[in-house]
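Methods — Computational structure assignment.
A single polypeptide chain was analysed. Its primary sequence is given first, followed by the predicted tertiary structure written as C-alpha cells.
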Amino acid sequence: MKSYQFLIFFSIVLLIYSLVNYYIFSRGMQALPQGTSIKSWYPWIFLFLSASYVIGRFLERVWISPVSSFFSFVGSFWLAFMIYLLMAVLVIDLIRLILYFFPQPAILADNYVQVKKYLFLVITGIAGIVVLAGHINALNPRIKRIDIQINKKAGQMKTLHIAAASDIHMGTLVGPRRTAKLVQMLNDRHADVILLAGDIVDEDLAPVIHNDLGRSLVKLRAPLGVFAITGNHEYIGGAEAAVKYLQDHGIKMLRDTSILISNSFYLAGRNDRDSKRFSKKERKSIEEVLEGVDLLLPVIMMDHQPFNLQQVADAGVDFQLSGHTHHGQLWPFNYITTAMYEVSWGFKKKVNSHFYVSSGYGGWGPPVRTGNRPEILDIYITFN
C-alpha cells in the first residue's frame, strides 16, 4: 500500500474512532451528576483508555517494551469495551427519542438525575462483564473434530490426520504463553501433518522477534511436515520478512504452489488475495497453482480468505481450509461476516469438494471473543 493511501486510510479510521469515543464520552458526562468526584475524574480516565490503543501501536513501531505492551493491552480491551458501550448508548438514545413523543412516567421525571447515574453504572458494569467473559473465552480454544471422506485413492494411504489452526496473530497480544499453548495443542493431536492457514503473524514482525515466539514454533512436530500459507496480515506487515522468519523456524511456506506428499496426495497453498494491494504482486490463478497436479489423487488446498468457493470446486480441489473471518469475533459482527461470505465459519460441501472455514485461534484487536470460540482443528480424512 502506498504511503499516501495509508495516510488517508489511517486518517479516516482515526477520525471515526475519535467521533465514536467523543459520542460515548459526552453521553457519560451527561449521565454523571454535577459536583461528584467521579465526574471530575471521568474525563481523564476516558482519555487514558481511549488513547491507549493508538499510543501502544505507535510505541511498538519505535520502542518495544513493557510500556508499549501495557498500552497495547489496555487499548485492545478498550476497543471491545467501546463497541459494547456504543451499542448501549445508541439503544438508550433511541429510547429517549421515542419517549420524547410521549409523556414521561412521573417516577422517571422525578428521579431523572438518579436514573441517569444508575444507568451509567449498570451499562458500564454489564459491558465490563461481557468483555471479561469474552477474554476468558478467547484464552480457552476448543478442539474441533472434522471427519471428511474423499472419494479418491491416495496411494497406499487409507486415512490422513491433520492438525490445523488459522489466524494465530502472534505478536504482543498472542505472546509466548499463548503461542506455546498452541504448539502443545497441535502436537498433542499426534497428526500426520500440521497446517497453518494464514495470519500467523499479527502485522508487525518486531514483537514476534522481541518475544522470540519462534522458539515455540520450532517445536511443532508432524511426520509429513508443518506447512503454512500467508494471510492478509503477513502482507500488511511485510510478507517477505514474515515468510523468512517462519521458514527459519521450521515451517514450510506454500506460496502459490502445489507439492506431492508421499506419492499419495497433493498439498497446495495460495498467497493471500491481498498480495497485490500490499506488495503489487498478483497471485497466481487457481489453475496456475494446480498446473501439473494429477487430479486423480486427492488435492488439499489452503487459501486464507474463503472467496469464490465454486471456482475451487470447479478446479477439482477435494478439500480447502480457510480462516480470516474470525466469524465476526465480537457479537454481533458475526451477522456481518455471515452476509459477506458463503461460509463464515464451519463446514460446507459443494458437489465433491469439501470446505472448512475456521474461526481461528487468536484474534485481531481485542483479545476478546463473544461471537464464537477459538479453535484448533482435528481433521480426519478417509480416502476411498
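Note: The first strand starts at residue 142 and ends at 150.
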